UniProtKB/TrEMBL annotation:
Region (Disordered): 24-44
Transglycosylase SLT domain location: 164-248
InterPro entries: Lysozyme-like_dom_sf, Transglycosylase_SLT_dom_1
Record key words, sorted: Signal
Species for this entry: Nonomuraea soli
Entries under SUPFAM superfamilies matching the protein: Lysozyme-like
Database matches in PROSITE patterns: PROKAR_LIPOPROTEIN
Highest taxon in the source lineage: Bacteria
Protein name: Soluble lytic murein transglycosylase-like protein
């Protein structure tokens, strides 16, 4: 029994491209190299500022944006709404990774120009979204108009639900975070999938009945607990690849989830950066941003 028949991930873009992901460790990894904040701290880039396609210029942009984003994350009370400045920095990083997604050559050349402290996060993020982009297909304006969005629960609260699920079922909270990122951008998307999958973790009704433990499929805590329950039943934590494949029968999806999870595992602050990523959809004319500053 699979949890998601046609994930919203096949419609919605998270934003990056094709280089090899760092392997996921069996034990938590912690970033020990501080990310230097640039001395120059201009106003955050505008939501629609042009992203460079030259590797040197793109690397220079990321060397400005990513350290400033992490500094903003350090200063943010994760129980409250993020500032517009923080959201713009996260959006700029996300759009930069999406630009890298379109070209493995650009991604490789750009990452090679980044400081060592920034490379792994960029590589894992770009790899994850590259896999998801390969699954995506355009949707029409009419379909876009039917999509529904809400503000997600506070980042700290969501993480608390994931940590509680890890304690109960033994499934790494980083994997749960990667799945809710891929499926609904931490609950921003409230629409059901075209096949009827529902809620922040996108359960099919039959699977929810079996693993939802009597909860509400649209409640984030209940959905996260049910996802951990399902993943444990299908092989986690012993075999995450097998368990995630049961969640969605596509190896690209498995690779994407594990790459995002590896980035969070290496540096838990990346979870909060991902939390501030926005929803994009693919149209016949290109990408359309659906949430975030100005929407």
């Amino acid at each position: 029994m699979r949890l998601v028949t046609a994930s919203l991930a096949t419609l919605l873009l998270t934003g990056c491209g094709g280089v090899a992901a760092a392997p996921r460790s069996a034990t938590p990894l912690t970033s020990t190299t501080p990310i230097p904040v640039p001395e120059s701290s201009p106003v955050a880039p505008a939501a629609d500022v042009r992203i460079p396609t030259d590797p040197a210029k793109l690397a220079a942009a990321l060397k400005q944006t990513t350290p400033r984003l992490h500094a903003a994350l350090d200063a943010w009370d994760k129980s409250s709404e993020p500032s517009k400045q923080l959201q713009l920095l996260a959006l700029h990083q996300q759009r930069a990774y999406r630009t890298m997604a379109r070209s493995s050559k650009l991604a490789t050349a750009t990452i090679a120009r980044l400081p060592q402290a920034l490379r792994a996060e960029a590589r894992d993020s770009v790899t994850a979204v590259s896999k998801l982009l390969s699954m995506a297909h355009p949707i029409t304006a009419a379909q876009r108009g039917k999509l529904k969005f809400v503000d997600p629960l506070p980042a700290k609260r969501l993480r608390g639900h994931m940590v509680a699920a890890e304690k109960r079922f033994g499934v790494d909270w980083q994997v749960l975070a990667a799945i809710i990122l891929v499926e609904t951008k931490f609950g921003r998307i409230t629409s059901s999938s075209s096949t009827g999958a529902q809620g922040p973790m996108q359960f099919m009704p039959g699977t929810w009945k079996a693993y939802g433990m009597g909860g509400d499929v649209h409640d984030a805590r209940d959905a996260i607990m049910a996802a951990a329950n399902y993943l444990k039943a299908t092989g986690a934590p012993r075999d995450y690849r097998k368990a995630i494949w049961h969640y969605n029968h596509d190896t690209r999806y498995v690779d994407a989830v594990l790459a995002h999870a590896a980035a969070i595992e290496r540096d838990p602050e990346v979870y909060y950066a991902y939390y501030n990523w926005q929803v994009f959809v693919l149209s016949s004319k290109g990408d359309v941003r659906m949430t975030g500053p100005g929407k």
